[in-house]
Structures are given as structure tokens and as C-alpha cells.
Amino acid sequence: MEEITDIIETENDRETYETARQMGEKATGGEVICLTGDLGTGKTVFAQGFADGVGVTESVNSPTFTIVQVYESGRIPLYHFDVYRIGDSEEMFEVGFEEYVYGDGVTLIEWAELIEDILPKEYTRILIEKDLSMGFDHRRITISRVYDRQSN
Ligand code: ADP
Ligand code: MG
Questions:
Q1: So what's the architecture of 2-115+136-146 in CATH?
Q2: Comparing C-alpha atoms, which of 50, 33, 54, 51 is closest to residue 120?
């Protein structure tokens, strides 16, 4: 099941960063946050703000060529995945996906829809969309709670 919990409109990358930073401040560990949206909508900007809220001091970039980047400098570990180039979900197990998802830290996954079949039963989905009629830098961020998934 999926339930929308919030819809936030931002007008520039700083507002998206700030929205994410506030979410990151509340993270306690064990959360799985799936970032969905076309290329260039702001998934990595969101990840950067979220990491800031967790207290990560390293600079956060898209881990496109490594699948996962682990940041340990914050209050809790942050596991940042970008699965855009993943061949199939099997590759995720090879990089230790399950140890991360069921670990002590908070997991952020860019392009999570590509590995939907192996996502946990519960997660938070962040959908970022452009609306060009509202301006080039406008984004709509829809936050949903996904739970009681049938397949896992
Ligand atoms: P993705 O990871 O989804 O491919 P990025 O976060 O790497 O996207 O890039 C988003 C781009 O869009 C950045 O250049 C950012 O400055 C720009 N941008 C413009 N407006 C916004 C906004 N409201 N929120 C987030 N990013 C924005
Ligand atoms: Mg990205």
C-alpha cells in the first residue's frame, strides 16, 4: 500500500536541499528512502541535503560508478546508492545490499524503481517531478509511505 504523507513544492535547489536536510535531521537509523524521478530532477541534491541533516561532513556525490557510497562521519551511517546502471537486482546482493538495508544506518537509493523487486516491505518514497509550466527550477516533491508490500 502507498500513502502520500506530504507534497512539497520547491523553487530552487537550495529549497530542495533544505527540505531534505530537515528529514535527515530526524533520521534515527533503519530507514530506507527511495528517490525516484527523471535525470536532473534533484535526487542527488536531495541526498546531499539529507546527508547534511544526518551530520555527514564529507562531500556527497552521485555514486553512479560504485553503486553504493558509505558515509560514516554523521550521527548514524548513511548508505547512498545510485542504481541507475545496475544490470539486475542480483548485482545488488553482490554489493551487500541487504546488510545495508537491514543495518544500523539510513539507506538512500536513487533510481530505486529499477530494483523494486528487492526493496523491503516498508520504505519511504520520494518522487521529484518537474513542472515546466511553473518554471525551470520548480519541483514537486511527493513523499509517500509504502508498506505491507505483497512481494518482497
Ligand atoms: P538527479 O540526481 O535527479 O539526476 P541532480 O540532483 O544531480 O539530479 O541535479 C539536479 C539539477 O537541477 C541540479 O543542477 C540543480 O541545481 C538543479 N535544480 C534546479 N532547481 C532545482 C530544485 N528545485 N530542486 C533540486 N534541484 C534543482
Ligand atoms: Mg543523481
A1: 3-Layer(aba) Sandwich (3.40)
A2: 33
Task: Say what the pLDDT of residue 66 is.
Answer: 83
Please work out whether the CB of residue 43 comes within 6 Å of at least one atom of ligand 1.
Answer: yes
Q: What are phi and psi of 142, to 5 degrees?
A: -105, 120
Of all protein residues, the one whose alpha carbon is nearest to atom 27 of ligand 1 is 13
Whether ligand 1 lies within 6 angstroms of the CB of 48 is answered as no
- Per-residue model confidence (pLDDT) at position 151: 57
Q: Which of 1, 10, 17 is nearest to 125 (CA)?
A: 1
Break the chain down into helix, strand, coil percent, rounded to 5.
30, 30, 40
Question: Counting ligands in written order, which one lies closest to the CA of residue 13?
Answer: 1
Please tell me the pTM assigned to this model. 0.96
The structural domains of the chain, with segments of one domain joined by +, span 2-115+136-146
Residue 74 CA to residue 34 CA, distance in Å, equals 20
